[in-house]
Amino acid sequence: MKPKTISRRTRQGFASMAIAISLLFTIATISLAGWVTIDTNDQYEEIDANWASVTPVYQDTTNDAGVDDRDEIKMVKFTFDGDAMYFLMQSWHGADILSSDSMRAIAALDCNNNGTFNDADDVGQTNGDRLIIRYNFDQVMIYDGGGNNLIAANPDWGDTDGNQTEWQAPLKNLPPGCRGTKAPIPIAFSIVEVTGGSSTTLSQTDVYQMDNPIDFGDAPNTVSWDNQQGFICDRYDTKLPCDGPRHGVTSLQLGPTIDSDGGELADDPALADDTNYDSAPDDEDGVAPSPAITWTAGGTGSLDVNVTGGSGYLNCWIDWDRDETFETGEQVITDQALSAGDHTINVNVPASVAFDGPYMARCRLSPNPNEGTTPTGPVYGGEVEDHDWLIQPVDLSIAINGSNVDLSWTHLSQNDAEWAYKSTTPYFDRASASALGTACTSGSCTVSDTGVVGGTPNAFYYKAYGEADVSGTTIYSTPSKEVGLFEFELVPGTN
């Protein structure tokens, strides 16, 4: 859909406001102890009662005597949740001034954090610089830095009541770089009057930092736009327009790391949020199939889970039929209460599962029961992890053959290739070990580690891993059991 271009008259109003606050001086970061949801579609235009729990970010306690401050901003409140930003503004004037045609209540966002609200050079870019969220004449409109309207005017996103007006901006209607979910964004508020083709900024606040870090999943998800139907979602519902799973970042998480993003990252094999930011960690480190445990169709398997930062409730799904949706019947863990630390949880496996390739999985840790019990939607606290798992481990055997160690196993159909690895450190992982021989791609697999028996006393440890190509990215299987060769020197009088 081609963005609508705003009128010259309105554009002047934005330009005047933007120039006036072009110098960035951050006063405070707007952070919350939790999300606060505001219903701006109240009947009879009543201001939502939830605002009572929100502390003002700006407050003018003096109605200056002798000064025409009828349009001066008296108070601003701002909050957010996993769905939207919410704004409340009071003016010193008391009669619906912000619903008149000439007045605009404005929130301006410096989305690339470069110290100005007046850039228009990033129009249409994912991290476009300036964003204007405007309320006037009972309508909410959102414009990018070039004055392009990102949404149709929406009368259901704002209310007025006397000298107060409240309005919202759904996160899914904002460019990812403007959501405040990856990094704090400067934000400022103003009242602008447009008359006779010219505009005047009547009042404006200081600049604040909006901080709303959110962790999203990253399983593959395709999103398109239809003028009649809106957002159309295909494959796993992951991205924000598809109501993808998302968690406000707190101390509670799966594994030792967590990251936040704008809710637009999704790919095969669910590694998008680990590879699309320069400093993004690999935060899918809290749930994995248990090493060396063979899963049985019609039987069970097990998952190893690490919880950090407190206790929570775990829900997990595995897409057993590979139809690219997480269905109710594919939920393998339901609201399992877990304390901080390591856990092993048994799960049931359908009889129809063939283990002939990777399976997409989604796990959500939430702070309270009955949260995160569906594969989509917002939760404050905890984390979501998406994985593409090669679940079955290789069944590795060891035999001594003269001075050699012979390793053997049977190739699994889930893997494109399989390798044996060697380390002098027990409980090693693939990345820290050395591969032996060549890859095995079918049938019976053997590889020899030569000349290690009868040599220098030492201990050697071996594992096997499978690998598969998923859309050009290599993923690795659950590791096999670890087998070892231990040689110790006998010293007289000490053994």
Identify the notable features of this structure and list them briefly.
495 residues, Immunoglobulin-like, 2 helices, elongated, disordered N terminus
Explained architecture:
With 495 residues, the protein is mostly beta strands. It folds into 3 domains: 4-210, Immunoglobulin-like (Sandwich), CATH 2.60.40; 216-389, no CATH class; 397-486, Immunoglobulin-like. The chain has 2 helices and 35 strands. The chain has helices spanning 8-20, 272-275, and strands at residues 4-5, 26-30, 58-59, 73-80, 84-91, 103-110, 130-136, 139-144, 148-149, 158-161, 164-170, 185-195, 198-204, 207-210, 214-216, 221-226, 230-235, 246-248, 253-254, 287-289, 300-308, 312-318, 331-338, 341-348, 359-366, 378-380, 383-389, 397-401, 404-410, 417-423, 434-440, 444-449, 459-470, 473-476, 483-486. The strands form 9 sheets. Strands 2, 6, 7, 8, 12, 13 and 14 form a 7-stranded mixed beta sheet that branches. It has a 5-stranded antiparallel beta sheet with strand order 3-4-5-11-10, with no helix packed on it. Strands 30, 31, 33, 34 and 35 form a 5-stranded antiparallel beta sheet that branches. The N and C termini lie far apart (80 Å).
